[in-house]
């Protein structure tokens, strides 16, 4: 087993490299300025895959968050982000891998994209899914609404 050590000014992190993948990105470009050439660097992103035991552990953690959900009559802003994520997974949503604030759900009657914005939750029912929508239908819900009201509105469909 090979170990990769990443050091920074404040800490050192060790990774087991059996499940480690590196992806290269092109250099970052900045507008013309006196410091632009000194800031161009190649960036690498660490992508870590999870073993089956780690997946089980994460599911157990999500179950704990679901057990700690505030009352369904409470406003969504009183829920922690892990609780909201667990709730969305419980409803059948899955998270988009490249944008953690975007979720999708595929029901037999409709497909939808949900976005967790800073001030509101947006749901867009997609015309590309099943059903007879002429265009995408978007609705916005304030986090001040109860989780129960938002759930009923979302699952009610377009």
UniProtKB/TrEMBL annotation:
InterPro entries in alphabetical order: DUF3143
Pfam annotation, one family: DUF3143
Top-level taxonomic group: Eukaryota
A GO cellular component entry from the record: plastid stroma
PANTHER family: OS05G0569200 PROTEIN
Name of the protein described by the UniProt record: Uncharacterized protein
Source species of the chain: Helianthus annuus (Common sunflower)
């Amino acid at each position: 087993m090979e170990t990769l050590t990443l050091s920074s000014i404040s800490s050192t992190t060790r990774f087991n490299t059996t499940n480690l993948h590196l992806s290269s990105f092109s250099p970052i470009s900045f507008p013309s300025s006196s410091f632009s050439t000194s800031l161009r660097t190649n960036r690498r992103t660490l992508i870590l895959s999870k073993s089956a035991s780690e997946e089980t552990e994460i599911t157990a953690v999500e179950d704990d968050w679901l057990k700690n959900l505030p009352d369904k009559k409470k406003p969504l802003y009183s829920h922690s982000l892990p609780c909201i994520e667990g709730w969305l997974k419980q409803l059948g949503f899955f998270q988009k891998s490249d944008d953690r604030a975007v979720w999708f759900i595929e029901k037999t009657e409709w497909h939808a994209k949900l976005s967790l914005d800073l001030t509101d939750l947006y749901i867009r029912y997609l015309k590309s899914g099943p059903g007879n929508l002429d265009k995408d239908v978007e609705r916005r819900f304030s986090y001040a609404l109860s989780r129960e009201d938002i759930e009923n509105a979302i699952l009610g469909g377009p």
